[in-house]
């Protein structure tokens, strides 16, 4: 990672695989490879493979071979001209930009801006429907099992066909859904899975992607099985051990009644069994039942962001001595309490929420994030000092949630629509059922800035209905909502914790008026900045990276954090945002900006200077960060504003060996000097308790001479999915970083791997993301390297005209693979 000391987090924790047991029917196979993809059409049926043209066909299950519901749904359809893609896949990232006619009265009114000017949506029917096809191997010995598909989420409005028959339709782009395909699947024969995805209508005011942008799974279970997300454990520390209240929902999808034993086993993080219960259950044919168990065990290492210890709950369904189903659920033992006076308490101790709001996209790949990149993003946030993540404003993909459980990141989980209509309630319920075992989740957010209802009785009524259901499905966690006005009324009077979006100074008055309600900053700060830039350039859409510029509703990092840090009753805050994201271009809500400037990191996860502000005050390690760069050719003798973020006691600044002055550090504030520019070496020296503990230099670099490459990993898994994050940069002939370098870098890969996306963090760049080349932006570019499935040595070479190339070597190790 960029410069920061790499945080020591446990390497990927995997739950020990259940012992291979041929009597257990449950299987789950990721469908990652060998998908074919083509665009259809949202307005022209001919270009949409005939979908919906003939109502007599559409009205009949499966249509007919001569007149199918859609040509592309036929097994015999020739898809050889379609592109082979890997899922997760986001076709929106490949679309051209459409700046539109412009001329809106208010830039915020331009609907194209929201999605980052990608040519998607109602104005672009030719780009807004995507089709996916894949042959499905359903083994012959799955006959007699319940066969299903699981979608972690697809954007959006999905029609799923199996063997020409529509087996499901699903709207929401962020909610997982399962499809029972037992009746239509043909075990042992060729099956064709076809998915039509229609992204014409978005759900958010930000870039959302399009397509099968999350994982898809093929599943099998015995007719008698634990229902999806049907195992729920509420655990609590008790002395040095723990207690757990367990519910397991079981379903019998067979005619005959079943007498079963449901076994629940708790295993400690070290894998040792700690407690078990066995409960008899009789189920009529085609019915659901539930068992409950209370377990207690004597020692339980607690889960926390600093030490994310994961327990495991195993549930087994046994009939006549044979285990027919088994599920494994990771959980953590911890207590999490919001207190109106003491803020948030984890395991009994106050823990300030040092949070970041994040959207789900990343440079290079859009919304289709490989699992290893989810981990990398969470690690970047932890390196900044974050212990909390707000999944704004939608359910995150489960792999992101897994990363939070595994790496130690608290989460505010949020539903997309604040509404009590049936569909919204279903979406909320699915979020809660999916994530209620996770130790990371500390609160459910039922809404964000619903201006029409947040302050009135309608909002309160909607919130009450939503909260009632949340409490029923998960009695253990509080409910929150994020508001930006009308703080005293409406929704505020219903939720357990009130979330303030910005307006941090208003929190004190609110606390005085409502001293019994916990509060937190659900969106805070929101400095806008361009990484590596220090001079405002409005026509160029460049914002200096000092902690200064922010929209009218927001504040600087320093302004909100100095308030929150000093007030224990403020549970903490979630900065808007951890990373720059596509869409919602701010502060320039117009072309050529295609992304936001809010991030403490840019869209590649390269730290901006505010990253170091937070790291200084959110992490305990001594830190000193000096900026800007020291290449101000042509400005000799003119003042340059120099800042330091440091958590030491005192910092002295030197230019070419001569002191420019020393400053005492004031907690949670930056230091600043005005320094007349002269080329050479700018150096900051930091003291703690009278000892020099850190120095940092910025040196005037000469002409670019050579490329450099670094990667976050030295080995990848050869599973076809693992990724390494590569940083390319440029140095002069003496190895000094060149802060303005903008060379076009071409990445060549030999061995079994490929670059799946590139980026540089420039919010006005319109270069292709899924490419093998990218211009550096202020000295940096990123390439995402994905391993193939063969393994072996991989070499990445970066070339740029006139510069010495850089070479990186790593290995990919063979592992078990998806299909
Ligand atoms: C908030 C909103 C966020 C984002 C942000 C931009 O009002 O909740 O989603 O739009 O403003 O400043």
Automatic annotation (TrEMBL):
Chain ranges of the Glycoside hydrolase family 2 catalytic domain: 343-587
SUPFAM superfamilies: (Trans)glycosidases, beta-Galactosidase/glucuronidase domain, Galactose-binding domain-like, Invasin/intimin cell-adhesion fragments
Domain DUF4982 intervals: 637-694
Assigned keywords, A-Z: Glycosidase, Hydrolase, Signal
Ranges for domain Glycoside hydrolase family 2 immunoglobulin-like beta-sandwich: 240-334
Domain Glycoside hydrolase family: start-end pairs: 707-807
InterPro entries membership: Beta-gal/glucu_dom_sf, DUF4982, GalA-like, Galactose-bd-like_sf, GH, GH2_Domain-Containing, Glyco_hydro2_dom5, Glyco_hydro_2_cat
One of the GO biological process terms: carbohydrate metabolic process
Segments forming domain Glycosyl hydrolases family 2 sugar binding: 126-218
GO molecular function, one term: hydrolase activity, hydrolyzing O-glycosyl compounds
Domain of life per record: Bacteria
Residues annotated as signal peptide: 1-19
Similarity comment: family membership: Belongs to the glycosyl hydrolase 2 family.
Stated name of the protein: DUF4982 domain-containing protein
């Amino acid at each position: 990672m960029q410069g920061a000391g790499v945080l020591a987090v446990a390497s990927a924790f995997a739950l020990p695989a259940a012992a291979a047991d041929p009597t257990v029917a449950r299987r789950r196979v990721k469908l990652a490879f060998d998908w074919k993809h083509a665009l259809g059409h949202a307005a022209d049926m001919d270009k949409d493979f005939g979908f919906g043209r003939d109502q007599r066909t559409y009205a009949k299950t499966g249509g007919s071979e001569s007149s199918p519901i859609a040509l592309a749904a036929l097994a015999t359809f020739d898809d050889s001209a379609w592109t082979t893609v890997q899922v997760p896949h986001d076709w929106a990232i490949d679309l051209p930009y459409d700046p539109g006619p412009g001329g809106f009265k208010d830039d915020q009114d331009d609907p194209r801006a929201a999605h980052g000017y990608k040519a998607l949506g109602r104005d672009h029917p030719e780009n807004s429907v995507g089709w996916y096809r894949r042959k499905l191997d359903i083994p012959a010995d799955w006959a007699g099992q319940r066969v299903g598909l699981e979608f972690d989420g697809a954007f959006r409005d999905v029609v799923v066909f199996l063997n020409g028959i529509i087996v499901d339709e699903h709207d929401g782009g962020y909610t997982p859904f399962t499809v029972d395909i037992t009746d239509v699947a043909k075990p042992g024969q060729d099956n064709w899975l076809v998915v039509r995805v229609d992204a014409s209508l978005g759900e958010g005011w930000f870039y959302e992607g399009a397509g099968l942008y999350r994982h898809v799974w093929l599943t099998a279970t015995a007719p008698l099985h634990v229902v999806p997300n049907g195992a729920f454990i509420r655990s609590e520390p008790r002395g040095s051990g723990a207690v757990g209240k367990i519910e397991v929902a079981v379903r019998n999808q067979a005619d005959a009644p079943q007498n079963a034993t449901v076994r629940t086993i708790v295993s400690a993080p070290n894998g040792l069994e700690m407690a078990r219960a066995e409960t008899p259950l009789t189920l009529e044919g085609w019915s659901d039942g539930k068992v409950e168990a209370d377990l207690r065990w004597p020692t339980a290492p607690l889960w926390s962001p600093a030490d994310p210890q994961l327990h495991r709950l195993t549930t087994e369904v046994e009939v006549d001595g044979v285990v027919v189903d088994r599920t494994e659920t990771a959980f953590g033992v911890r207590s999490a309490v919001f207190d109106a006076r003491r803020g948030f308490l984890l395991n009994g101790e106050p823990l300030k929420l040092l949070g970041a709001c994040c959207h789900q996209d990343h440079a290079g790949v859009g919304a289709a994030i490989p699992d290893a990149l989810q981990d990398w993003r969470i690690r970047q946030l932890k390196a900044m000092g974050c212990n909390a993540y707000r999944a704004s404003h939608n359910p995150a993909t489960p792999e992101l949630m897994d990363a939070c459980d595994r790496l130690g990141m608290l989460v505010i989980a949020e539903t997309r629509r604040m509404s009590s209509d049936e569909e919204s309630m279903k979406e909320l319920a699915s979020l809660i059922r999916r994530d209620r075992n996770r130790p990371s989740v500390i609160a459910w957010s039922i809404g964000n800035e619903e201006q029409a209802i947040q302050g009135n009785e309608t909002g309160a009524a909607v919130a009450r209905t939503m909260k009632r259901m949340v409490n029923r499905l998960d009695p253990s966690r509080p409910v929150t909502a994020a508001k930006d006005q009308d703080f005293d009324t409406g929704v505020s009077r219903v939720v357990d914790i009130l979330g303030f979006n910005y307006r941090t100074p208003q929190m004190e008055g609110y606390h005085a008026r409502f001293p019994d309600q916990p509060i937190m900053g659900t969106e805070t700060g929101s400095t806008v900045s361009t990484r590596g830039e220090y001079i405002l350039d409005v026509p160029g859409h460049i914002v200096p990276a000092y902690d200064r510029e922010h929209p009218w509703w927001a504040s600087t990092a320093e302004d909100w954090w100095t308030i929150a840090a000093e007030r224990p009753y403020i549970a903490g805050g979630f900065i808007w945002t951890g990373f720059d994201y596509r869409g919602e271009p701010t502060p320039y809500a117009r072309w050529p900006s295609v992304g936001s400037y809010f991030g403490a990191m840019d869209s590649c996860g390269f730290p901006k200077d505010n990253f170091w502000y937070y790291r200084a005050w959110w992490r305990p390690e001594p830190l000193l960060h000096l900026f800007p760069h020291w290449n101000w050719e042509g400005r000799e003798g003119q003042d340059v504003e120099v800042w330091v973020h440091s958590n030491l006691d005192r910092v002295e600044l030197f230019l070419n060996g001569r002191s420019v002055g020393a400053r005492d550090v004031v907690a949670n504030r930056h230091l600043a000097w005005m320094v007349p520019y002269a080329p050479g070496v700018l150096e900051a020296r930091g003291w703690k308790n009278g000892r020099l503990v850190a120095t940092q230099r910025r040196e005037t670099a000469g002409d670019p001479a050579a490329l450099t490459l670094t990667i976050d990993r030295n080995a990848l898994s050869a599973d076809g999915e693992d990724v390494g994050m590569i940083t390319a940069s440029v140095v002069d002939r003496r190895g000094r970083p060149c802060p303005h370098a903008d060379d076009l870098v071409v990445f060549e890969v030999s061995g079994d791997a490929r670059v799946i996306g590139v980026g540089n963090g420039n919010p006005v760049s319109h270069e292709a993301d899924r490419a093998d080349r990218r211009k550096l932006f202020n000295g940096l570019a990123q390439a995402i390297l994905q391993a193939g499935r063969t393994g072996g040595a991989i070499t990445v070479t970066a070339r740029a005209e006139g510069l010495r190339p850089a070479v990186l070597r790593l290995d990919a190790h063979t592992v078990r693979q998806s299909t």
